[in-house]
Amino acid sequence: MEVTQTQAKPRRELPPLMTLSEAAATRLRSLYEGGQQGKLLRISVNTRGCSGMSYQMDWVDEAGPTDEKVSSQGLTLLVDRKATLFLIGSVMDYKEDKLTRGFTFENPNEKGRCGCGESFHV
Asked: Cys-Cys with 51: which of 65, 70, 100, 114 at CB 3.0–4.6 Å?
């Protein structure tokens, strides 16, 4: 009886949990150096809005036991472990126009957003 070995398929590399655009890194760097010096930005996903989920950002003094550390563009931010499956491959950006300014998320996991842009669903 001949025994053959089968080679396991190589695992596909996962995309980074989250990355920062240059604009987001510039803005976050200025916040870290300014009024939020010594703090870290923590990103989580909460149930809220008409589409079901929304991004939440909070300043914290240190990483919690369920936080994942993300390094991008030379900066560190935290992601709540419960939000990781919803955020894999996301790019955090910072946009300014005549009426609004703020951080935005380009999330490949989103299947849709509400009309006002406050919430999303996967």
From this structure: 114
